[in-house]
Automatic annotation (TrEMBL):
<keyword id="KW-0442">Lipid degradation</keyword>
<dbReference type="GO" id="GO:0016042">
    <property type="term" value="P:lipid catabolic process"/>
</dbReference>
<dbReference type="InterPro" id="IPR006311">
    <property type="entry name" value="TAT_signal"/>
</dbReference>
<keyword id="KW-0378">Hydrolase</keyword>
<dbReference type="Pfam" id="PF03403">
    <property type="entry name" value="PAF-AH_p_II"/>
</dbReference>
<keyword id="KW-0443">Lipid metabolism</keyword>
<dbReference type="InterPro" id="IPR029058">
    <property type="entry name" value="AB_hydrolase_fold"/>
</dbReference>
<protein>
    <submittedName>
        <fullName>Putative dienelactone hydrolase</fullName>
    </submittedName>
</protein>
<dbReference type="GO" id="GO:0003847">
    <property type="term" value="F:1-alkyl-2-acetylglycerophosphocholine esterase activity"/>
</dbReference>
Length: 418
């Protein structure tokens, strides 16, 4: 698990998989942000540790709901002839949140398994740790917009559940985007379906280049299917496999004429490939993922953002250099100082919080620090949110915050790479 030295795509996804193996439950352990946020660590009379997620920085309250989607036209590549089945979550600006409860980070069965796995990975009991809830409210009515809100898809890292992007996803929704997070079933470490059914990863512990190529191809098809189901939703249908009731106003909140995509690690590669295959996707971002598909050589003609950790870039990742040279539209390359590969996930605040709260063995702490870097988690999250939000604001809403044109004194952690 190295956040300092990067090689092409297989190294990148193995880095993500290694961190997930060590902190397999960290996607359920979130942390507080900086000024104005909840404090991450709360020990009450019962000596329990309450972990919290960073509070979104946007002004809008956030609603969320999950959909079970079944692609009847496609067999699952790992369980054929069963049909391909996905879980996705929609995060959207809410009209109000009165009478609705905050959504859990992970559903119950996944939380129980996750607790076991992270305890083993950290060599520390989590019996006194309470996992967080999100800042989004389950099934809250969607806020009305003049033409709906831009839609952004999120794809997580290899073998990583969609929950690990919550800190960034919630924030985008609070800024006026509808964000759709995708679990890539049987690649993600765990996916919980309605009724508590868990589908676990069927990927090898040490994937080959072919394994990664197969996973990327499946992800491309997943994204295209999800886009098709979103169009069905926006046109009045209900794509949920169990026909569960949709939040009021959700359909009209989707503006599918303004679509973006981003992802972390292999999810960033997925974002670029999705843009290459779907010309109506207007903008994309890759958070620290190498490129293993054909898009590195063919490039894109639409806006794309590259953001890397402190030890990764075009100077030591040939796939980034190749991709950059074939970008024909607006492009920007940023680097987050003192960061590691997992700094772009919820693991960054999680690790710092857990280290402060629990007796984690020094060798595990060293490995975790290598994964998330030494940057303060609050500052990292704030910078990632600011630049990701400014990017999608500029290219999906034509609102220029002038943050993307030159370095900012507000965010000295961000380095512009010419």
């Amino acid at each position: 698990m190295s956040g300092r030295t990067f090689r092409p795509s297989r190294r990148t996804v193995l880095t993500a998989a290694g961190a997930a193996g060590l902190m397999c439950a960290t996607e359920g352990v979130a942390v507080a942000g900086g000024d104005g946020t909840e404090r991450a660590l709360s020990i009450g009379r019962s000596s329990r540790v309450q972990l919290t997620l960073p509070r979104p920085d946007g002004r809008l309250p956030v609603g969320t709901m999950s959909l079970q989607l079944i692609d009847h036209s496609r067999p699952d590549p790992w369980t054929s002839p069963a049909r391909r089945e996905l879980m996705v979550s929609l995060w959207y600006p809410a009209q109000h949140t009165r009478g609705f409860r905050r959504a859990a980070w992970l559903p119950p069965a996944a939380t129980a398994l996750y607790r076991q796995q992270v305890s083993a990975g950290l060599h520390t009991s989590l019996d006194a740790v309470d996992f967080p809830v999100t800042h989004a409210y389950e099934n809250a009515p969607a806020r009305a917009g003049l033409r709906g809100y831009p839609v952004v898809l999120f794809s997580p890292a290899y073998r990583t559940p969609r929950a690990l992007g919550t800190a960034l996803v919630e924030d985008l929704a609070s800024r006026g985007f509808v964000v759709v997070t995708v679990d890539h079933t049987h690649e993600a470490s765990m996916v919980e379906f309605p009724g508590g059914r868990l589908e676990l990863s069927r990927q090898p512990a040490s994937p080959t280049e072919q394994d990664i190529s197969t996973a990327l191809d499946v992800r491309r098809r997943d994204v295209r299917f999800v886009l098709r189901e979103l169009a069905r939703l926006a046109s009045g249908g209900n794509p949920d496999a169990e026909n569960r009731r949709l939040p009021p106003g959700l359909r009209s909140s989707l503006d599918l004429s303004r679509v973006g995509v981003f992802g972390h690690s292999l999810g960033g590669d997925t974002a670029a490939e999705a843009m290459a295959q779907n010309p109506w996707i207007a903008a994309g971002a890759n958070l620290d993922g190498s490129f293993s598909g054909t898009v590195a050589a063919t490039g894109l003609d639409r806006p794309f953002l590259l953001m890397s950790n402190a030890g990764h870039g075009r100077d030591n990742d040939p796939s980034w250099a190749l991709f950059w040279s074939h970008l024909r539209g607006w492009r920007l390359n940023l680097r987050l100082r003192e960061s590691g590969h997992q700094t772009f996930t919820d693991q960054s605040p999680l690790v710092q919080q857990l280290e402060a709260a629990l007796p984690i063995p020094p060798q595990v702490v060293a490995a975790l620090t290598e994964a998330v870097g030494t940057i303060d988690a609050d500052r990292a999250v704030a910078a990632e949110r600011a630049y990701l939000g400014a990017f999608f604001d500029l290219h999906l809403r034509h609102r220029d915050h002038h943050l993307l044109s030159q370095p900012s004194r507000r965010y000295p952690e961000i380095e512009f790479i010419p």
